[in-house]
Amino acid sequence: MQTLALRLNPGDDLRASVVAALAASGHQAGFVLQGIGSLDGAQLRYAGMPQPDALRGDLEILTLAGSISADGAHLHMSVSDAQGRVLGGHVCAGCTVRTTAELLLALLPGQRFTRELDPRTGYPELKIG
């Protein structure tokens, strides 16, 4: 395992940036071990829900973790709003960095992750190869 510290900038899309960082590293499998920072709104899909919910306003990233492949990422995150309320769920496109996001990635040399539609779940699920 190799690690990669990553800082995202204001305006970056969190999910797309994580996938791009994996591609730029030359690896085909990785994990986000942790992430903190701030967002200017987020798109989170809650357990059992078919569509993401749009969260508006300033948010603090409390936790961020998940798997990364060239096919995309499976990320979960918890955030707090200006009143300290905490929400969490599946990270969708549209989570925009407000001031910074600081992440630690674990890159897995020699591993290859892909995502394939699993008819049992209806989602593209991780395939380890």
Provide a descriptive summary of the structure in words.
- This is DUF296 domain-containing protein.
- The chain has 129 residues and is mainly β.
- It has one domain: Hypothetical protein, similar to alpha- acetolactate decarboxylase, domain 2 (60s Ribosomal Protein L30, Chain: A), CATH 3.30.1330.
- It contains 1 helix and 8 strands; from the N terminus they run E-H-E-E-E-E-E-E-E.
- The strands form 2 sheets. Strands 1, 2, 3, 4, 5 and 6 form a 6-stranded antiparallel beta sheet that branches. It has a two-stranded antiparallel ribbon with strand order 7-8.
- It is globular.
- The model has no long low-confidence stretch (mean pLDDT 96).
Task: Write a brief caption for the model.
With 129 residues, this protein is mainly β. The protein is 9% helix and 60% strand.
Query: Unreliable runs, pLDDT <50, ≥5 residues?
Result: none
* Radius of gyration over all CA atoms, rounded: 14 Å
Main sheet? 6 strands, antiparallel
Euclidean distance between termini CA atoms: 16 Å
> Which CATH architecture would you pick?
2-Layer Sandwich
Query: What's the CATH superfamily, by name?
Result: Hypothetical protein, similar to alpha- acetolactate decarboxylase, domain 2
Specify the oligomeric state: single chain
Count of individual beta strands: 8
SS content category = mainly beta
CATH fold-type name: 60s Ribosomal Protein L30, Chain: A
CATH class: Alpha Beta
**Helix fraction?**
under 10%
Helix tally equals 1
Compressed to H and E, one letter per element, the order equals EHEEEEEEE
Beta-strand share of residues? over 45%
Choose one word for the global shape.
Answer: globular
- The overall average pLDDT, rounded, is 96
Domain count, please report it: 1
